[in-house]
Amino acid sequence: MRSLNLWAVWSAGAFLLSCGSLDMSTDEGPTTPFASMRRLYANDSAANDSMPGALALGGVRFVLQPGIDYGLRMDSSRTTDRLGLYLYDNGLLKSFGSYSAQVTGGAGVFPLRSNRAGADFFVAVLQNGNAAAASRIGRVRLAPISNVESIVLEVRLLVIRQISLLPSTGERAALADKLLADLKALFLTYGITLNGSYELVEPSSPPVSVPFNGVYMALPGTRIPGAINLYLVDDISSASLYGTILGFAPREAMSLSSDLDSRVILNGHASESLLVTTAAHEIGHFLGFRHTTATNLELNEEGDLSNRDDGFSSTPDCVNLAKASARAAFDGGKSMSGIHYCPFQTVASCPSTCDVTNLMFPYDCPAGAGGQRLLSSEQIVFLKSNLALLQP
After folding, report:
1. Are 201 and 316 contained in the same domain?
2. 370 and 303, same structural domain?
């Protein structure tokens, strides 16, 4: 999420689910309630030092897209390890299978594949795991086995009802055209072709403000399957944060068609140039990007103080960054779609020694004529790989 003040982080409480009863074929299943389990993200390079213990002692959760081969990799040379996989289905954890690792060069890789019709949440736990197992496991990663990349991005912009700063439908249409054209030009610099379209939804109805309070709010308009759907609303409101919230989105969307929370919300009070950067930044989170440097809020939300940066060598941790320390009132829940991010701006938060021109830097900083829109080659590979998972 982007705003004009200090970055924070939140999780949508509307999708907070508990484990309920368990339907498992073995008594070696997860011991941690689903909603509080550690979340593993596809292609995530962050340190995740606490993930081995979670995998061995309680279980970790992640999304598997249908028909795609993944490898869950852990640094361990033990050939007897077995992984239990469980499907989260209608509030129940159901046994999905037991897997042996393919051990090569001190790393065990468990091949995983979902035969479900759509994206689903799964839980993995090391069978017969204990504290000793946790201590001998190294880094844990989830990645598609193939290195397929996508260079096409489908985007649908839904302009919701009246926008107070754009009273006529002609002004709204002109903004939509300009926003999509500038987004297309920006993503082309990353080697990605953006195909965009828009719709003016209920253009004569009163303006709508979306609250940023962890509660899902339904919005009108027809979502386009296979597209990242952007919703431009009149305002985003929150009594818990300082400054104007420019936009928000889930980190690593679950699906493009079936998961209603997989969307980007944009604030119609922002200028067109800010909307372009904000939309691109939130699309980055939507496809799994962390911030280049984590704020204290994100470290606390992730439950892993090792995740100080995104893990890319090309975007080092900004040691001079004045990290946020205040917590928002709604930070206790965990969204089904993942962690949501929120930027705030202060002068002290934008030191010249940091990569303030990077699109995923965690503050909205003045970054010169080119703006805060750059991605490293390493980030672009990540972007294309995760885009291929959602738009195969």
Report:
1. yes
2. yes
Q: Which residue has the tokens 């037991």?
A: 98
pLDDT along the chain (392 residues), means of 10: 39 26 53 90 92 93 95 87 93 93 88 94 92 89 94 97 97 98 98 98 97 86 94 86 74 89 92 91 93 77 83 84 42 39 53 84 71 93 96 76
CATH number of domain containing 21: 2.60.120
Please give the tally of structural domains in the chain.
2
Q: Judging by beta carbons within 10 Å of its beta carbon (0-12, 13-18, 19+), is residue 52 exposed, middle or buried?
A: buried
- Host domain of residue 214: 2-13+149-390
Is the domain of 206 the same as that of 346? yes
Residue among 245, 255, 258 nearest 344 (CA): 245
> Which of 144, 165, 185 represents a domain boundary (last residue)?
144
